[in-house]
Amino acid sequence: MKKGELIAEFAKRTEMSGTAANSAVNTIIEIITERLKKGDTVGITGFGTFSVTKRAARKGRNPATGEVIKIGASKTPRFSAGATLKAAVNPRKK
Q1: Cα–Cα distance between 3 and 29 in angstroms, integer?
Q2: What average pLDDT does this structure show over 73-83?
Q3: Residue 52 banded pLDDT, cuts 50, 70, 90
Q4: How buried is 52 (Cβ within 10 angstroms: 0-12 exposed, 13-18 middle, 19+ buried)?
Q5: What is the mean pLDDT of the chain?
Q6: Does domain 40-93 have CATH number 4.10.520.10?
Q7: What does the domain layout of the chain look like in residue ranges?
Q8: d(CA 48, CA 75)
Q9: At 62, phi and psi to the nearest 5?
Q10: pTM for this predicted structure
């Protein structure tokens, strides 16, 4: 599912206009992004947790030349699925 499809489904389920649904989805994405930029964690009970992890500087290799290169330290966003989401994706058979 792409973002446009998500917005269309959101609009359909909430009976919002496409414009209002687009604004709502974009606002949620903006809020999560802003919080992660500040280093905060965003948890949605049952769905999952968005967080930021730090990656240490390391050495790598240029695949074209084989030359050793330095890869700088960075931060990366991370998502950890919640129990309800995991259960929905992997239902237990009885």
Answers
A1: 11
A2: 96
A3: very high
A4: middle
A5: 95
A6: yes
A7: 1-39, 40-93
A8: 19
A9: -75, 115
A10: 0.79
